[in-house]
């Protein structure tokens, strides 16, 4: 095997010649040529290795505790994909306007790269053209989720699931798809969610439609 640390280049002298020369032209020979080829060995990033398989040390049995230490540093590799920093509880108001930020998300990674983390956010390819929500990568390891329309109605759809693609800056990079759950809510004037469950009109227990109509007719008569 080649080893850049021990030898960085090789020089070869190569000759090429006719295997079968025509006897009539031997006097015009030689029918060969030579050239020099220089091979450069490129350096690659290799893991550290001990120069010796065994390191013997002689220590007197009378040596006191505390003769020195051998420190071994374990280097981190990129073997964990990024994921949501927390379980987000995202809501969107029924009266939300287009372009409104409804959630800011971030990511975490169990790896510890020497240059720090750098995450990239995007919607998955099958949701990039959806008409409900969009994603903006803030370039600071966070992303914002925005509405693309107004008029969300709980009665039509109370929950949306938005797959988000996250990539780290490791070498090689790793990625994961995390799903953000977005609930449609009835909000007050300040945009604070009040009710997020899909509501349906249910008759009081024990009353039929006919009985309810009769009661309403009585009330109208009294009025």
UniProtKB/TrEMBL annotation:
It comes from the Eukaryota. PROSITE patterns: CADHERIN_1 (PS00232), CADHERIN_2 (PS50268). InterPro entries: Cadherin (IPR039808), Cadherin-like_dom (IPR002126), Cadherin-like_sf (IPR015919), Cadherin_CS (IPR020894). GO terms for molecular function: beta-catenin binding; cadherin binding; calcium ion binding. GO terms for biological process: adherens junction organization; calcium-dependent cell-cell adhesion via plasma membrane cell adhesion molecules; cell migration; cell morphogenesis; cell-cell adhesion mediated by cadherin; cell-cell junction assembly; homophilic cell adhesion via plasma membrane adhesion molecules. Pfam families: Cadherin. Keywords: Calcium, Membrane, Repeat, Transmembrane, Transmembrane helix. Residues 2-50, 84-201 form the Cadherin domain. GO terms for cellular component: adherens junction; catenin complex. The chain crosses the membrane at residues 201-222. It is found in: Membrane. PANTHER family: CADHERIN-23, CADHERIN-7. This is Cadherin domain-containing protein.
């Amino acid at each position: 095997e080649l080893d850049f640390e021990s030898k960085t280049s090789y020089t070869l002298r190569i000759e090429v010649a006719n295997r079968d020369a025509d006897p009539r032209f031997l006097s015009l020979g030689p029918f060969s040529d030579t050239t020099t080829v220089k091979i450069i060995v490129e350096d690659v990033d290799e893991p550290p290795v001990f120069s010796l398989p065994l390191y013997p040390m002689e220590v007197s049995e009378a040596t006191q505790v505390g003769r020195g230490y051998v420190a071994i540093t374990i280097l981190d590799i990129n073997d964990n994909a990024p994921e949501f920093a927390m379980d987000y509880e995202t809501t969107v108001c029924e009266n939300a306007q287009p372009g409104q930020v409804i959630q800011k998300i971030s990511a975490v990674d169990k790896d510890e790269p020497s240059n720090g983390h750098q995450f990239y956010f995007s919607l998955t390819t099958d949701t990039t053209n959806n008409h409900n929500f969009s994603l903006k990568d803030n370039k600071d390891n966070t992303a914002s989720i925005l509405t693309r329309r107004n008029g969300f109605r709980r009665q039509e759809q109370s929950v949306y699931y938005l797959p988000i693609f996250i990539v780290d800056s490791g070498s090689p990079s790793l990625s994961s798809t995390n799903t953000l759950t977005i609930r449609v809510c009835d909000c007050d004037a300040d945009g604070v969610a009040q009710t997020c469950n899909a509501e349906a009109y249910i008759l009081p227990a024990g009353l039929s439609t006919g009985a309810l109509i009769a009661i309403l007719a009585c009330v109208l008569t009294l009025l």
